[in-house]
Write a structure and sequence with these properties.
Length: about 300
């Protein structure tokens, strides 16, 4: 029973980490869609490509000028942002780019771009991945601080409160059901943003049930000014508490950086272990009862 209780505490903690990771993932997705980060990274990579092949010497066109021409072609195809109606390029195939360049410029330029396209796109993927990793860390810090998700406090609450722990364990099916709910791939930009906002709100609604509450400004001001519950508390003690909280925030941010898919897989594995322990415990109980001497 002790093993199962410890395992339940770990599982409940993983559920909390999964929900927080989903909040981070939703916020990140909203930022990516609203700011067109992938489109911007691709445009930068196209500019680098044209600069590398020296388009100014090759066809007397500056890289920025060629990028603008490519953007205009995409605009004609209706690939524009929802709000400002700016050209939006999330991806482009080599064949499509060479066709566009042949149309708006020359085959000479298109042939040269074709030679270096794969190298430039590899740089684009690396650049975009770095940007998204940085955004993930920033979003994780903001989410953890705003929700006051101190690792030590969250773990303490779960391990000492049986009611809270059992309530969190009951949320497993609900969280998995939400994971299956995805925005349709064919959704328009407006529909996709609305779906992301709806999903984010669902995850945020789950936070209070996980023992997580928004960090109130009064908590910060009371702590900094030695007011309220911190009145008459020595500075040394407040400093120690502050260091512990920052450490708890840092650990939570590092754990969230693993991503929602990692914690989803971890959750499935832990429930598998729990089922095995239950079966083992049931078997031992049956054997113990079978080995008891019969009463006369």
């Amino acid at each position: 029973m002790t093993d199962l209780k410890t395992l339940d505490t770990i599982i409940a903690m993983v559920i909390v980490l999964l929900v927080l990771s989903l909040i981070v993932q939703s916020v990140q997705s909203l930022i990516k869609k609203y700011l067109k980060l992938k489109s911007r990274s691709l445009v930068d990579s196209l500019s680098d490509l044209f600069a590398y092949i020296d388009s100014q010497t090759l066809v007397s066109r500056a890289p920025a000028e060629l990028v603008e021409k490519v953007n205009e072609e995409f605009k004609k195809l209706g690939r524009v942002s929802l709000i400002r109606k700016r050209p939006m390029i999330d991806s482009i195939a080599k064949a499509d780019l060479t066709k566009i360049l042949e149309k708006v410029e020359s085959k000479k330029l298109a042939d040269e771009v074709e030679k270096w396209f794969d190298t430039a796109m590899q740089g684009f993927e690396e650049r975009y991945t770095r940007h998204m990793k940085s955004i993930t860390i920033i979003v994780s810090i903001v989410v953890v601080v705003l929700l006051n998700a101190n690792f030590f406090q969250v773990y303490h609450n779960i391990s000492t409160n049986d009611v809270m722990r059992n309530a969190i364990l009951q949320k497993r099916d609900l969280v998995q059901q939400q994971l299956k709910t995805q925005s349709p791939e064919t959704a328009t930009e407006a529909e996709a943003l609305k779906a992301e906002l709806t999903q984010l709100q669902k995850y945020l609604d789950e936070a209070p049930g996980l023992g997580i509450r928004l960090l109130r400004p009064a908590q910060i001001s009371d702590f900094a000014g030695a007011q309220g519950v911190w009145k008459d508390v020595p500075f040394r003690n407040r400093l120690g508490h502050g260091i512990k909280v920052i450490g708890g925030f840092a650990i939570m941010v590092m754990l969230l950086s693993a991503g929602a898919p990692f914690w989803q897989d971890a959750l499935e594995s832990l429930f598998g272990v729990k089922n095995l322990l239950r079966k083992k415990s049931d078997t031992e109980n049956v054997e113990d009862r079978g080995g008891q001497p019969r009463s006369s």
